[in-house]
Each structure stands twice: as C-alpha cells, then as structure tokens.
UniProtKB/TrEMBL annotation:
Record protein name field: Reverse transcriptase domain-containing protein
Taxonomic lineage from the root: Eukaryota, Viridiplantae, Streptophyta, Embryophyta, Tracheophyta
Keywords: Nucleotidyltransferase, RNA-directed DNA polymerase, Transferase
GO molecular function, one term: nucleic acid binding
C-alpha cells in the first residue's frame, strides 16, 4: 500500500515491478524474468553464496564458452516456444469455460430482440466523453 502520502507511489514502483516480474504466471507457465533472461531470478543473499562456486566453474576457453552460449540461447528459444504454447493452451481453456457459461439461444422471425447500435448518439453534448 502507498500509505497516507499518495505522492509516494513512485517510490514503491520498483518493488512492485520486481514482484510482478519474479512471480509465477499461469498463462505462460513460468516467470516473466526467466522468459526474458533464460534463468531463474536469485535474491542477493543467494548470489553471495553462489559467487565462489561460479568463480570455480568459470570457463576461460573461448570455443567451449561459445558452444555453451549457443546451447543456452537454444534453450532460451525452447523456453519461449514452450511459454507461447502454454499461453495458447491457457487461452483455449478460458475460452472453453467462458463459452460453456453462454446460453445458446435460437431466434425466430418476428421475435423482438434488442439491437445495439454503437453509432446512435442519444446524449450528444454534456455527457459526451472527451
């Protein structure tokens, strides 16, 4: 929450964006952070403990490092394709649920129906949106 001072919303924006980017999203089946960067987001305390391990695992051979990077990029593309497929599945599932709640109605000739005409302007003037 912002609190008493409503002008302080910009101070909370970074935290809100970080929370949004690192939270699991059902439609894509992963974190948005992982989708962009290809790896899980680690907290600063986790990074402190992993720094020594990463230093030991550093590979200084450029050809092996290049091959490793190509593999990482391929995995990232596969992850993005998988997220795209998950989003399609999620959309189909929500559409199926939505369509199941809609009543199928049959209209006959001479039935009275409500026709919505978006071009019809009943209130022109004061109530017009700007």
């Amino acid at each position: 929450t912002i609190g008493q001072n409503r002008a302080s919303w910009s101070d909370k924006l970074d935290d809100a964006l970080w929370t949004f980017r690192t939270a699991y999203k059902t439609p894509i089946g992963c974190l948005p952070y992982k989708l962009v960067y290809g790896k899980a987001c680690h907290l600063l305390i986790e990074l402190e403990h992993k720094a020594y391990w990463a230093l030991k695992e550093t590979n200084f051979d450029l050809s092996v490092a290049g091959d490793h990077r190509k593999i990482q990029l391929n995995k990232l593309n596969e992850l993005r394709d998988h997220a795209y497929e998950n989003s399609l599945i999620y959309k189909e599932k929500t559409k199926r649920i939505h369509d199941s709640k809609i009543k199928n109605r049959v209209f006959n000739v001479s039935d009275q129906v409500l026709l919505f005409n978006s071009r019809l302007k009943i209130f022109s003037g004061k109530l017009k949106s700007r």
